[in-house]
Write a structure and sequence with these properties.
Number of domains: 2
Order of helices and strands: HEEEEEEEEEEHEEEEEEEEEEEEEEEE
Number of helices: 2
Helix content: under 10%
Largest sheet: 8 strands, antiparallel
Radius of gyration: 26 Å
Strand content: 35-45%
CATH class of the largest domain: Mainly Beta
CATH architecture of the largest domain: Sandwich
Bound molecules: calcium ion
Structural class: mainly beta
Number of strands: 26
Length: 343
């Protein structure tokens, strides 16, 4: 079944591709125009980051007010770009406000600003506008080297590539320009405040926001999704309003809500002893994945393979429940769920 799913989905979308990657260990990449930024040892940042993607060796360190630009050309077809990098907020960056406050890390894609947030390290009352999602903040107000320790010179580290925002920037052109800068009214000299990036990687692919929407008619149970369908994640389905006496519950998943063999969907099951029930998908991928029954509801997690090749694909799910006495057959069907797999 998994093989079938993979085969079907792989044919449906553009595969992911890494089009640029540097850990800044082999000199300045030709694609980067660094201005006054230099390759510098990472000092106390070494080892911070998710497994396999940690600060190490050298990174590209810049004073505030200086722009670092990455230019890529001849990109393959895509509609989403993932800016994947580690970000070091070094020394006394001052957050939002007026001088010495006003230190905004800004990222422009093809000259359009896609990110501009203030970072604050110096004192706790300063305003950092960036709110990091889980897993993104690696260190905050820590002494990681450069100026200090002590005084205003604590440091912070972030895996900005792990922020879903940076993973799904709309872009489809054959060339890409990404400009990184800390700008604003608060810029100060290198040894007062600075920033750096490491493990800069650019991935392109096709990106889609996952959705799950109910359709069709139920003759008892209600099917819904409790997580967003996304590659590499479990899709969590829940059935509620189960008939009294339900003993087993199953999920069926298919690729069509229009045809099941020679039958046109939705197909009424009244003549099969299940009045008011309808078959609303073709069950071509799964016909009987069991739910866990608990009280009056039922839950199942369906793993979605981790590959951008699966993004954008549409599948259809329906629940069915064995409930003796609910009708002459003892089986009832839920509504359908139209599911689009996202990133
Ligand atoms: Ca490095
Ligand atoms: Ca420091
Ligand atoms: Ca400042």
């Amino acid at each position: 079944m998994r093989t079938l799913l993979c085969t079907l989905l792989a044919a449906a979308a553009i595969p992911a591709q890494t089009v640029f990657s540097t850990d800044f260990e082999s000199g300045m990449p030709a694609e980067i125009s660094a201005g006054t930024a230099t390759l510098t040892g990472v000092q106390g940042y070494a080892g911070l980051g998710p497994t396999g993607d940690q600060f190490g060796g050298s990174f590209l360190r810049s004073e505030t007010g200086n722009t670092v630009t990455l230019t890529l050309t001849n990109l393959p077809p895509h509609n989403v770009v993932h800016l994947d990098f580690l970000f070091a907020a070094i020394d006394s960056l001052d957050g939002a406000g007026a001088y010495p406050q006003g230190d905004y890390f800004r990222v422009d894609v093809d000259s359009q600003t896609v990110f501009r947030e203030a970072f604050a390290n110096a004192i706790s009352s300063q305003i950092q506008t960036y709110v990091s999602p889980p897993g993104v903040e690696l260190a905050r107000h820590a002494d990681l080297g450069f100026s200090g320790p002590g005084g205003y010179y604590t440091d912070s580290a972030y895996y900005l590539g792990g922020d879903p925002f940076f993973a799904s920037i709309a872009h489809s052109g054959a060339s890409l320009t990404v400009a990184f800068v800390i700008e604003g009214p608060g810029i100060q000299p290198l040894n007062d405040e600075s920033w750096a990036i490491d493990n800069l990687r650019i991935h392109v692919g096709s990106g889609t926001v996952g959705t799950a929407a109910a359709y069709g008619t139920s003759c008892g149970p209600t099917l819904g999704a409790t997580s967003q369908p996304a590659i590499g994640q479990n899709l969590d389905l829940a059935m509620t309003t189960l008939p009294t006496g339900s003993v087993l519950a199953f999920a069926a998943v298919g690729t069509s809500s229009a045809h099941f063999g020679q039958f046109v969907l939705p197909y009424p099951l009244d003549s099969q002893g299940m009045p008011g029930c309808w078959l609303v998908m073709d069950a071509s991928l799964l016909s009987a994945m069991p739910f866990a029954l608990a009280g009056g509801s039922a839950n199942v997690s369906i793993p979605i393979p981790n590959g951008v090749g699966f993004v954008g694909f549409q599948i259809f799910a329906q629940g069915w429940v064995i409930a003796p006495g609910s009708n002459s057959v003892g089986v009832v069907f839920s509504n359908g769920l139209r599911i689009r797999i996202g990133t």
